[in-house]
TrEMBL record:
Mitochondrion listed as a keyword: no
Domain of life: Archaea
Sequence ranges assigned to domain Schlafen AlbA-2 in this UniProt record: 2-112
MF annotations from Gene Ontology: helicase activity
Metal-binding as UniProt keyword: no
Stated name of the protein: ATP-dependent DNA helicase
Keywords: ATP-binding, Helicase, Hydrolase, Nucleotide-binding
InterPro entries assigned: Schlafen_AlbA_2_dom, Schlafen_AlbA_2_dom_sf
Length: 192
């Protein structure tokens, strides 16, 4: 009955592994559900729910998961028995439980190795790590090598119109005055 996005716990006595499961699922799928009062095989056993049970679950999730997630925690009834549903989602991967990152594989929670964690972070930030789409706020037209520009334009099969043409066009589209010029914008301008 368990899956990559569904975790079942017999009771809240398994709260620590439940928190780990939430993190593992978030790191792989960014959303999932967890039920207390249901065995791994799907057998509904019910969960005793006291005045503070839902609050205790919420506090454990808040205290032991970073970055923070705010799940929907509610009492539900299956086969006439009270259970607890925890519905969660989050896009701030990687998530950590008790200081460690985990990933969901089938119905298991595996600790991430340093290399796996590094790859997860790189995948998350791949767009921000592309240098040619980054703005260099300190750059000016004087920082551009005219010889390299001429070579690039020639390689593109276009007529070189000079750095002054590039500067005027960039100012017209307010690239320079807006605080930066990206390499992609320079390339586009040079061959247009």
């Amino acid at each position: 009955m368990e899956s990559e996005t569904l975790e079942l716990k017999k009771s809240t006595a398994q709260l620590k592994p439940a928190v780990i499961s939430i993190v593992a699922i978030l790191n792989k799928h960014q959303e999932g559900k967890l039920y207390f009062g249901v065995k791994d095989d799907g057998t509904v056993v019910g969960q005793e729910i006291g005045n503070d049970t839902l609050r205790t679950i919420s506090q454990a999730i808040s205290a032991y998961i970073e970055p923070k997630v705010y799940p929907v925690i509610r009492q539900v009834t299956f086969e006439g028995k009270s259970c607890i549903e925890v519905e969660f989602q989050g896009n701030e991967v990687p998530y950590f439980a008790y200081g460690r990152a985990y990933i969901r594989t089938s119905d298991e929670d595996k600790p991430l190795s340093v290399k796996e964690l590094e790859n997860l972070i790189l995948r998350k930030n791949k767009d921000q790590l592309k240098w040619d789409s980054s703005i260099c706020r300190e750059a000016s037209l004087e920082d551009i090598s005219e010889e390299k520009v001429r070579s690039f334009v020639k390689e593109a099969g276009k007529e070189y119109k000079g750095l002054l043409h590039i500067s005027l066009t960039c100012r017209t589209i307010q690239v320079i005055s807006s605080g930066g010029l990206t390499i992609e914008q320079i390339k586009t301008e040079m061959v247009s």
